[in-house]
Amino acid sequence: MDNSYFALTIGPIVDTLSNTRATRELWAASYSFSYIMKQILREIQKEQGRKIIIPFAEDELFKPANERTEKYKQGAGVFPDRIIFQGMGTDTKDVINKIVEAALTDYAQQVARKIYPKQSQYHSQVVSFVKSHFQIDVVQMDLDDKPRPILQLSDYLNTAELQRRYPVIKYPHLLTFFSWVNKSFLVEDAWGTESHRFDTLLHIAAREFKDTEEYKASLGIQTSTTDESPKEELSPDEQDTVNESPQKDRDDASDKDLIKQLKKAYKEKKNGLRFRPVHKYIAIVYSDGDKVGEVIKSIEEEGKHTHAEFSRQMNAYALDSVQKVQEFGGMPVYAGGDDLLFFAPIVNGERNIFQFLKELDTLFQNAFKQFGKPVSQSFGLSMAYYKHPLSETLKSAETLLFQKAKSGNKNNIAFRLQKHSGSYVESLLHLKDKSTELFYELLNASLKNEGADLLRSVIYKLRESETLVGHIGHDPIKVGNYLSNSFNESIHKREPFKTFLENIGKLIINCYQEHSGDKSKAHSKLFSMLKTIAFLTQNEERE
Q1: To which H or E segment does residue 286 belong?
Q2: Closest of 243, 215, 233, 177 to residue 32, by C-alpha
Q3: Which pLDDT band, with edges at 50, 70 and 90, does 148 fall under?
């Protein structure tokens, strides 16, 4: 058997995504990478002598979208940024590079036809730029009779990614294409439809109102029968700004109408709904698997090469997580194995984003339980006003994940709530800590209005007594006495306030016990949790 192995990785992902400004653009940028890798993998798999190690891609995913079942056309890119396979005897690096070149050329030509449908004289220039933007590295290695292809080739791919050049965007061809993506070959590949309407950040944030007439009416403003082709007055040499799609104006008008109508109809609670500040804030989530390397080491032990099952579970989790995101009211952008990127509402009824991330973590753990190695997920959760620059919120989520959530014991939610006023709240929740469990209980109770009003009084009192709380925070008896003396009216002795105050007391104690050597960290974590809950449940704009 041939011992020549190949690995491919595509980029620059972060640099490309960071230039997007709307949901459709971010989706298009992300889906482009998945689309290109799918075309490459399609060609690689045509030769039966090759053995794909990662990813596992079911035949259903390669069918035209209108022939796939609903599970396999949910819109998110599910092909990861890496391919590893065992080659056949005639394979060389040049052979694989030709497959890569053909896939990139095909993608670039379709982009050119979208941007300049009637001016083909510009196509070659667009194709040249698009092909130079995407960087696909191919690595070839000859391994011994006891190979560990994922572990051995991944190190080389990591090095290749670090050495990538920063893309020079002289012409904004890709950004123009992303802006006009609503009717394109990418939409056709993802959904099997001629066009697709992408929810705005506000419509995702306010998903709780999706069944109301006001919400449905605002969606109608987004649709149009006008031609979805970029203007062609400018040649590639003259384009130094993005040829913006009119969809932006329709999106802005739709957002403005939605806020106006929801404020008017749901200023007070009506049919169980009330329009609150949190409905104008969006969550962007990056997630990544923890300790997956331990699973890979296990499956690559001698005589135990269960790559196919590992890759199959990765693919199954990606598809299941996309479905879960949509059921929660979010918009999946990318799901490549153990990596996820998606938009989501912060609150949707009695459900909330923190609770949902815990559900995803459980789903991930169960997916890999069969390998006998404990895994988990870590999350970067960035929450911001819907008009806050998307690129900044996206970058924040990435930084939170890789610089904070993936540190220490991992299995963390690193979150940041960026207020419209400029102030922010930021903290790290370890999903196995007792304080995190209590945070969930208090948040769920507040969303049911079982203590939300009282919480603001508690925060004020704790801030007033900060020094005292720092001295007694680790002592259950003293904390209990402090809360009893501070909130001693008869209403505080009745449910639901009695249990609510008890849980706040437990939260104080656990924060100070978990950070027994650092009162400042304990205090910061406590207030971050309480202020986050207060914001997510407040009824009026305030700081």
Answers
A1: strand 281-290
A2: 177
A3: confident
Q: What is the pLDDT of residue 1?
A: 46
Q: Where are the domains of the chain?
A: 196-276, 435-543
Of 185, 154, 138, the C-alpha closest to 35 is: 185
Task: State the distance between the two ends of the chain, measured CA to CA, in whole angstroms.
Answer: 67
Q: Which range is most confident: 104-108, 148-152, 236-240, 316-320?
A: 104-108
Task: Tell whether the model's pLDDT for residue 423 goes beyond 60.
Answer: yes
Number of neighbours of residue 400 by Cβ within 10 angstroms: 26
Q: How far is CA 229 from CA 113, 116, 180, 184, 197, in A?
A: 10, 8, 7, 10, 15
Region of residue 47 (left: phi > 0; alpha: psi -120 to 50; beta: else)? beta
Half-sphere CA count of 344, side-chain side, radius 13 A: 29
Q: If you search the block for the tokens 């991930």, which residue do you land on?
A: 364
Q: Note the pLDDT tens digit of each residue in 320-373.
A: 999 999 999 999 999 987 899 999 999 999 899 999 999 999 999 999 998 889
Residue 269 burial (CB count, 10 A): 11
Entry pTM: 0.93
Burial letters 411-438, b for 16+ CB under 10 A, else e? bbbbbbbbbeeeeebbbbbbbebebbbb
User: C-alpha angle with apex 355: 496 to 421, nearest 5 degrees?
Assistant: 85
